[in-house]
Design goal:
By secondary structure, the protein is an alpha+beta fold. The chain folds into three domains: about 5-80, no CATH class; about 95-200, no CATH class; about 210-320, no CATH class. It is built from eight helices and 13 strands. A hairpin with a 2-residue loop joins strand 4 (about 125) and strand 5 (about 130).
Amino acid sequence: MAARDPRSEAQRLLIPGLVARVLEPSPPAVGPPWFADDPVKDGDVPPGHRVVAPVPLPGALTWDEWLADNHEHAEFVSARWLGAHRRLTVAPASYSDTRLALHRVAVYVVSPARRLANGKIGLRWTLDGFGTPVFGEGEQVRVEGDRVVLQRGETVASHPMSTLAGLADFLLGGKPDLAGAEGFDVPPAGDPEADLRVDPVAARFLGDWFGFAYSVLEELRADPASVDAGRVQLWPEHFDAAVDCGPDGRRSMFGASPGDDAVIEPYLYALPPAGTPPGELWNATSFRGAILPLSDMVHASDQRAAALAFLRERRDAVAGA
């Protein structure tokens, strides 16, 4: 297994004068305040160069526009949710068990690897799964399907999705990190020696959901109307990707959950500020906000357009309230 640098992988496809931007975290490690690279905005652009980005940015090409003259790279671009976007399907039957198992992996072994290095818990989408931004001396932990990968510089090792105890020993050199989860509403660690029920097909479906989510949420974040937008982060405690935006007093959260106890399928959500008047836009029953389940957009002619329309309509409603 080779070490990965997603931005460099994409850059190798481009001719001189073009600068790649990607959704996945890429080296080098970044310091405070974020301790994480910005997937679409980091890095200087030399004079006379043009960015190729996964979302529309002023003066940039999108990867879809670039593909118009570079069809042979469509599979690479599609796999990384940069463009030529694939369609989501309904979740496989094994999805719920896999989602719960990977949520525990995220909380008790993957996020702690980053937290113990710099105090940050946020994760990101990575190819075929999820993982940490690059931290420390070029380290990254990520889940790829039914394996966990530990990358240190150019050295890469992986471990099958066995037990929490086995993964903790591999990543942390000890036991699952229970202390870091205290105070959060997270799944119990359970028996650390019990086999994790992770189906590789369902794990890659989850990875595709997070890839879809990042492509949509980063585009929402890039909108000029998304005032003072934060970073898109995959939070291990809720196991969802989310970004906040809006002025003080009207700040809202927009995200993508892989499912939970109340809504078993993946869904998009909008969480408006307190005091937002009730109305037909706010249809959630398990929290104060709105949801768009995957089943409601799986047959849309353009799934990303349907997702963005849902999020933008609620962002704009809050702004105009």
